[in-house]
Amino acid sequence: MPTEKIKIIDGQRLLDLELPSIRFIVDKLIPQGLHILAGAPKIKKSWLLLLLCLKVAQGEKFWELTTEKGTTLYLGLEDSLNRLQTRLSIITDTAPDNLKFATMVNSLSGGLLEQLEIFLTDYPDTNLVVIDTLQKVRDNLSDANLYGNDYKDIGLIKAFADKHRIAIIVVQHLRKQFDSDPHSMVTGSTGLVGAADSSFVLKKDKPEDETAKLYVRGRDIEEQVMTLRFDGEAMEWIFVSTDSPMTDSMKRDTVIPQLINYLQKEKEFIGTASELAEKIKAVSGAETKSNVLTRKLNAFESELADMGIEFTKSRSGERREILLIYSPKEANDDMTIETGS
């Protein structure tokens, strides 16, 4: 059998390629791909994920973050239907038809991904699958090649998530040994977290604490540490604060505030990133490279939209153009950001 050539693409064609934007199931927090949620036993990971599935199925906000409405599948592989029913009845009086559950599935080697393929055929609007827990769908493998086995198993699930542009969250436990980096405490080898798109670690300082930290790290999301509080009556995790909100990051940026002030005056811009950089420089004296400006526009697209700035990209012949329109919203008419002296 002849060796197949490597499929390549040159740099300019890659820059010109119109690719779909990353799909976010929960805005700024859960994009398409494979994600790990890890925490100590009995820390109520399942309650968090059950609420998440419910909110996505309803299309309602999760911790004040917008969700993309779709069918969700919760695989409660350590639970019974009785337990799932009890939990669901505590957090809601009514549940939508697109919130689906299963307590038994095949293992990865036994055809789990084929089962999920059939499920997506039956419910093509599916955007979120939770596997609680990962260990329940893995084979009993030896520790001889732990890294390789971890990377392979996670890689298989990730490839499936990427193929269908959905989010899959797998639940894992934490090791008892302390590590200054909570993400390094996820049970398994470094291949487990390394192959995933994101890792979320739910951790308390003391078992009796009502509050916990959710450590967030991923390829397509901002690294942050969220403070959560568990409401014992509602049986749900309540968002308290985060130490790195994206809006604060935007305000600290050296270029975006100048862009905002420029658009306040001009209301609209159409042209290349290089031309926009020149306009900003002429008004404020702030210099930035065109590729850096484009990257920042992509990173803060959602925050700019909240301020009434519409950002779209288009192609006209050899020109890659940016269209920015400022239409202030009534609730957020004043969007001036201090730029310093």
Give a written overview of the molecule:
This protein is α/β, with parallel strands linked by helices. It has helices at residues 11-16, 45-58, 81-91, 112-122, 146-164, 190-195, 246-252, 256-266, 273-284, 290-299, 301-306, and strands at residues 24-26, 30-31, 33-39, 71-76, 99-102, 126-132, 167-173, 198-203, 211-218, 224-231, 236-242, 268-271, 309-316, 319-326. The chain has a 9-stranded mixed sheet. It has a 3-stranded antiparallel sheet with strand order 12-14-13. Strands 1-2 form a two-stranded antiparallel ribbon. Strand 1 (24-26) and strand 2 form a beta hairpin. The N and C termini lie far apart (67 Å). Mean pLDDT is 88; it is low at 331-341.
How would you summarize the topology of this molecule?
Blueprint: H1 11-16, E1 24-26, E2 30-31, E3 33-39, H2 45-58, E4 71-76, H3 81-91, E5 99-102, H4 112-122, E6 126-132, H5 146-164, E7 167-173, H6 190-195, E8 198-203, E9 211-218, E10 224-231, E11 236-242, H7 246-252, H8 256-266, E12 268-271, H9 273-284, H10 290-299, H11 301-306, E13 309-316, E14 319-326
Parallel strand pairs: 3-7, 3-8, 4-5, 4-6, 6-7
Antiparallel strand pairs: 1-2, 8-9, 9-10, 10-11, 12-14, 13-14
Helix pairs in contact: 9-10
